[in-house]
Design brief:
alpha+beta; capsid protein of prophage fold; four-stranded antiparallel sheet; 8 helices; 25% helix
Length: 366
């Protein structure tokens, strides 16, 4: 039976509330994947990114004293970008605030204040969840999908909006033939595969790989692979190699990469709040260092937020009550019909793979 807040909190002695399902979604990535760089702030929700290709050509020699050889200007290009925007409202009816101001009962006041604070906290957690989940989905799929109601999806089924980050075809699946045998086979030369991927990354963009974001099956493939076992024995000695292999772990810095297990990421189903799995068990996303602004970042847009509610003599004067706020924001406002208070919470942002060719999304079981 569904009861109101007042019915739950107002009729018996109360104990401290217990959180039976922990709020929030896991943030398993290094902090650089979630950090917002002020240099990527955008007024509003639109921007144009200027892109250019650095040269790899050598300077040409000329006879000593000869005239210099002419070189060409490097071209520029532009990419228009539209940020995501979210805004949600939570309403509190006047009955709750009558209880908060029940001066005869301090305990009732405190319990209702705690409940109001909890509801506000959950509203803000939803904003952080969306940021985390879009970062995870972008890295898991190279795309984002949303339905017509604005809900993030785990697949393109039912998508009303698709954001494609443009990973080249040779940077997906078997990476243009680099993954030429399944990692599920113990005899597959995984060591050679990884060396080839690292070399291809440097040859393609010049940005070396730093992280390997891996699905739940990857560790098992690595510790049971013949070439990986031999590599570990040679690199760290048979005793230490035996310890890691028996415990189904890999040592930090294996193949000069930082391995991040992604099997625990999920987002809550918009209807049931049940955990929705996001990462394929046989997928690895190899990434460069997200702290490098040439390859990664989170755009942060702005939105006009009211700072006061009052009567002014004309429309233009009312704009003095608004300020542009970048990123996440929140404010409270009075409601007259019915009487109450609404809390509004929003964000304008977009995680971005600035250089899609620097990322390699491999499925290791062709």
């Amino acid at each position: 039976m569904s009861l109101s807040i007042e019915e739950i909190l107002g009729w018996v002695p109360l104990t401290k509330a217990i959180e039976t399902v922990k709020a929030g979604v896991p943030r398993v990535l290094p902090p650089a994947f979630y950090n917002r760089n002020p240099s990527f702030r955008v007024l509003g929700d639109k921007t144009r990114r200027i892109e250019y290709t650095g040269t790899r050509k050598n300077a040409r020699i000329v006879p000593y004293g000869a005239p210099p050889r002419q070189i060409q200007h490097m071209p520029l290009s532009g990419r228009d970008i539209r940020l995501l925007h979210t805004e949600e409202v939570i309403q509190f009816q006047h009955e709750l605030f009558l209880q908060i101001r029940e001066f005869d009962s301090y305990t009732v006041q405190e319990r209702f204040r705690e409940e109001a604070a909890r509801q506000v906290q959950n509203a803000t957690v939803r904003q952080v969840n969306l940021e985390s989940s879009t970062v995870h989905a972008m890295l898991a799929n190279g795309q984002l999908w949303f339905d017509a109601a604005g809900n993030l999806l785990s697949s393109p089924n039912g998508a009303d909006l698709t954001i494609n980050y443009g990973l080249p075809a040779n940077n997906q699946n078997q990476l243009g033939g680099i993954i030429d045998a399944s990692w599920a086979n113990a005899s597959t030369n995984i060591v050679q595969h990884i060396n080839n991927i690292k070399q291809q990354a440097v040859y393609t963009t010049g940005y070396p790989l730093k992280y390997a974001l891996c699905g739940k099956n990857i560790m098992r493939y690595l510790v049971t692979n013949d070439t990986v076992k031999e590599y570990l024995r040679y690199q760290i000695g048979p005793d230490r190699a035996g310890y890691f292999l028996k415990s189904n772990q890999i040592p930090p810095g294996l193949f000069d990469l930082e391995w991040v297990p992604m099997q625990n990421i999920f987002f809550g189903d918009p209807n049931t709040d049940a955990a929705v799995e996001m990462w394929n068990g046989d997928t690895i996303m190899f990434t460069p260092d997200p702290a490098d602004p040439m390859v990664y970042g989170i755009y942060e847009g702005s939105y006009p937020v009211p700072t006061a509610f009052n009567i002014t003599g004309d429309v233009m004067s009312q704009w003095a009550n608004f300020q542009q706020r970048y990123g996440r924001y929140g404010y409270g406002m009075p409601e007259l019909r019915p009487l109450g208070i609404s809390g509004v919470y929003g964000d304008t942002f977009l995680p971005s793979l600035h250089n899609p060719a620097a990322y390699f999304q491999a499925n290791v079981t062709p």
